[in-house]
Structure formats: C-alpha cells, structure tokens
Write a structure and sequence with these properties.
345 residues; alpha/beta; 7-stranded parallel beta sheet; 15% strand; globular
Length: 345
C-alpha cells in the first residue's frame, strides 16, 4: 500500500483507498486462473472488494472477467461497475431458474447475508443465510468458494481470553448467529460431499468511514446520546485490509471448508475509544451501564500467519473517523448494533 493519507477528503478518495490492492494481492491474481464472481456484491463490502479484484487483475496483466451479482442493481451502481470494468448482473439468488443462468465461473466469492432487521424477518434470514448456500454449492459445485461468515458464530468470551480461535466450538447467540452457523454447516456439508474447496471468512468487524463501531460511537457523541458500556470491548479491521485478506483466502480454500478469523489485533475498550473520539470531536461524552466481563472477540492469529498483519491500525481508523464526522462526511445509516448481547438484531 502506498503511504496512507492523514485524512480522507471524500467518498471517491475513500473508495479508492478501500479498493487499493497490495502487491501480494496482485501476485495472487497472476497465479489464480479463471474468472471471478461476487454474489451479493452490492452491500457494504462488495463494491470495494470487487473493485480491488479488478484493479489487482489489471495490475497483474492477466485477462479475467469480474462479475458482480446482486438482487437489485440500480442504474447508478450498474454504471459504476461498467466504468471500472466490472460486469453487473441482476439476479434473485433464491430463484433456482435465475441462479442457473449465471455464467460458469471457477472462483466464487459469497457475500450474500442478512443481519440488519433480522428480528421480525426470521424466515427470510434463515432462507438467505442457510438455504441459499446449498443452492450456490449445487450450482457451482466445480468452483472454489470464499464465503463470508461472521464472528457471531462464537459465544461471548472473557475479555482476558484474547478472543475466540477457529478451533473453538461455536455457540451462537440468537437467530441471526444461529442462521450464520447454519450457513457454515451447509457449506461444510457440500464441501465434503462434493469435494468442493471452501474457505469461511469469520469477519468481526470490518470498518470504514461511513459505517463501523467507531462511526456508531462518534455519531452518538455528536448527538449527545449516552454510550452503553455493557459490551465493553470489541475488535475491528479496516475494510481495505479485510478485502485483501478475503481475496487472498481464495488460495486457501480446502476440503472440508476451512474457517479463518479476520479482524484486527487490538483489543479495544469502548470507554477509551469513545473518550478519545469525544476529545477529537470537541464534545462531551456520557456513559451508562457497566462493562461485562465477556464480549464478542476474535483471535485472528491464523489470518496473520497466512496474510500478514493489517496495515491500518485502530488508532488510524479512529483519527480518520473523527475527522470524517467532524467535517460532516456521509454515513450509510446502518448501525453495527455491536452493543447487542442477546443476539437480536
């Protein structure tokens, strides 16, 4: 990565930074053969991830088609893709007839998921998070698959534990997390039944300037809303770092499906992060509640062994977020709900 800026001017600069490939990603694109398809590509992460794949492929000098598939593709997003050499496809992935029409592609990135608004839409949540993976595995049984999962499949663990590791048994809390474990189990079943190489990215939590835990905290400070302390600790990773790890994970797809935790190395304390943000924003901060002795935390040592450590620190994210919010930068209006301890999102 080139030298990082002290501040990020606007969304154009932000998206360029989030999609900037590392030399390791470029080298991987030279080794990997075949086109790539990103399913569920128009959420929070998909655009920058697909663009990084396109940029890295171009820098590698290899011919490759990059497909971005979504249930709804707005004219603006379609043009955004075409301007960057990405081929947008509108497809209801839950419709077998539409899924069958997608081109045969050897490298699949599965991003489709339901979290926000899960409560009250439990049937759709299970269909999207647990049923759809089976349809995708049937349709692309000759491909390699990188599938997004989540750290929510783990239980809340003692803060001093250092976070859950991949070999720890899952203990999901709430229907969203249960459906995500269902997603993992379905991918693993098809991986073993059809000799299908799969890697499961247990992401916890990707962060940029328009959404993320620090954005949530900063907005509450600006709005004068007290900060809840019950979920007193958290992990984050800069989305650009999680993007490059996700792309490189393609070479580590295995049978049976292989889980990899992806998050930052810092154990962040809500009280300290919020106090620092309040200082940078020039606002007071108020806290309510007490810190619990457990939190949703992941240990990403395995990812660091495979891909190296994240290049953007939590402190850098914090400074960027504070500057962005202070200047009135746009946000996505999608709170992480990281403070939820009962699994009801």
């Amino acid at each position: 990565m080139n030298e990082r800026p002290e501040w990020i001017a606007d969304e154009e600069a932000l998206e360029e930074l989030l999609s900037r490939p590392t030399p390791q990603v470029v080298e991987m694109m030279r080794r990997v053969e075949g086109d790539m398809m990103f399913l569920g590509a128009f959420g929070k992460i998909g655009p920058s991830l697909t663009w990084m794949a396109r940029r890295a492929t171009d820098l590698a000098g290899v011919p490759r088609r990059i497909y971005a598939v979504g249930r709804h593709v707005s004219p603006q997003r379609r043009q955004w893709c075409l301007d960057r050499g990405i081929e947008p496809i509108c497809c209801d992935l839950l419709d077998r007839s539409e899924l069958a029409k997608l081109p045969d592609v050897p490298n699949i990135f599965y991003l489709a998921a339901m979290k926000f608004g899960t409560t009250g839409q439990e049937p759709f949540t299970w269909a999207l998070n647990s049923f759809l993976p089976g349809l995708v595995c049937e349709r692309f049984s000759g491909s390699r698959i990188v599938a997004f999962s989540t750290g929510n499949v783990y239980p809340l663990v003692p803060v001093e534990s250092g976070g859950s590791k991949e070999e720890d048994p899952p203990e999901p809390i709430g229907e969203y997390a249960m459906s995500c474990l269902g997603r993992e189990r379905i991918f693993t079943y098809f991986s073993m039944a059809r000799n299908l190489p799969v890697v499961l990215i247990r992401l916890n939590y990707a962060h940029e300037l328009r959404y993320g835990i620090m954005v949530d905290l900063g907005q509450k400070i600006l709005d004068g809303v007290p900060i809840e302390l019950a979920m007193g600790y958290f992990n984050v990773i800069w989305q650009g770092d999680s993007n490059q790890m996700t792309l490189r994970a393609l070479e580590y797809a295995a049978v049976p499906a292989r889980p990899i935790n992806v998050t930052g190395p810092e154990l962040l304390r809500v009280r300290e992060v919020a106090s620092r943000l309040a200082e940078l924003l020039g606002r007071p901060v108020e806290f309510v509640g007490q810190e619990a002795s457990t939190a949703l935390l992941s240990n990403a040592s395995r990812a660091y062994e495979l891909f190296g450590r994240p290049q953007v620190s939590a402190e850098q994210i914090l400074r960027w977020v504070a500057d962005w919010l202070r200047r009135g930068g746009p946000t996505l209006g999608k709170p992480t709900k990281f403070q939820v301890r009962n699994g009801r999102f």
